Amino acid sequence: MIGWEDVYKVIVAVVPLYFALVLGYGSVRWWKIFTREQCDAINKLVCYFTLPLFAFDFTAHIDPFKMNFLFIGADTLSKLIIVAVIGLWAKCSSKGSSSWSITSFSLCTLTNSLVVGIPMVKPMYGALGVDLVVQGSVVQAIVWLTLLLFVLEFRRTGLEGTIRTTSNSLKPKASSISSVMMGEDEERKDLEVNRIGMDVILEDGSSKLPFFELMKRVWLKFIVNPNSYACVVGISWAFISNRWNLELPSMVDGCILIMSRAGTGTAMFSMGIFMALQEKVISCGPSLTLFGLVLKFIAGPAAMAISAIVVGLRGDVLRIAIIQAAIPQSITSFIFAKEYGLHADVLSTAVIFGMIVSLPILVAFYAILEFIH
What is the mean pLDDT of each run of 10 residues along the chain (373 residues)? Predict the structure, then answer.
């Protein structure tokens, strides 16, 4: 059984995250150190430098030949169940949309496994728990976060194409005398077109760009984003290094570590900055906050429980699978949401509230699961 000493160890591991968050919040709200433009630059630093190197660092040091593929299979099946349910909701419900489908998937499935999961699971299940959580984190980083990144890039590219195409089609043809007289009217129409284009892509994900042109633009942006291949390079090196007993040169390893160690701290700092820029700390409101918590701590673990039983997981592996599905929201999902302008307020609230309530919830999960054989 987990004791008070183990609970204290979990708290010790979580408190530094809040320290970084408070520093980010205070730097904008209390001390006025950063402007809004500088805050955007900090978010890009996190998204394009510290997080990719952090992801590469932990991915490159696993042993892919010793992964529990039943556990990975259960994790994959649970996410496919979530995708199916969300897709059915988006198709059949009048409130369904592509934008909320993306956010709902993030809330249900993406966890902060390395930062929060390991210190929470280790006192519960020891080395076995840590090993499985790390494996789940690697698959999440390589497959699911990459897929999320691709979908977000697809959405943004489609949005830009819709705005440009709609703008060009609605601009009036004018003579060189009338062009001066209609200047203000064109500016007004351009602003309206931008608003219409935003509404179109946000409501149903449609785009007036040809499909192959859209895919080309998405791919070109995708391949220059370091988050899209950091984990792929990392797992490739893991296969090579474990197959032939190789190690990274100390100089290369040091270059990676100096930035990757800043990944978690700068991500939390960036989230604190985002909170400070909002009128309210919990900017999405109580209804969406409750919605996010239900998806994170009920829908996600329920889908994992069904999947784990279906693939035949038993004992501690089954318990760990359910526990890791209830780990608080992924900080990376918030960083992506902020970068791509999709419900960042909901994701930041999920990260904050999730970390606050996760300790008692996970301890309760642990106690209940002890009765499962």
Answer: 71 83 92 92 89 86 89 95 92 81 93 81 86 88 85 75 53 49 46 42 50 73 76 89 92 92 88 81 82 92 94 92 92 84 87 82 85 71
Cα–Cα distance between 95 and 186 in angstroms, integer? Answer: 34
Residue 191 resides in a domain: no
Beta carbons of 22 and 273 less than 8 angstroms apart: no
Q: What angle do CA 222, 81, 295 make, to 5 degrees?
A: 85
- Number of structural domains, the chain? 1
Tell me, yes or no, whether 313 lies in a domain: yes
In a domain? residue 177: no
What's the domain range around 251? 4-146+227-369
Quote the DSSP letter at residue 328: P
pLDDT tens for each residue of 290-307: 999 999 999 999 999 999
If you ran DSSP here, which 8-state letter would residue 347 be given?
Answer: H
Cβ atoms of 162 and 209 closer than 8 Å: yes
Q: CA-to-CA distance for 287 and 292, rounded, in angstroms? A: 9
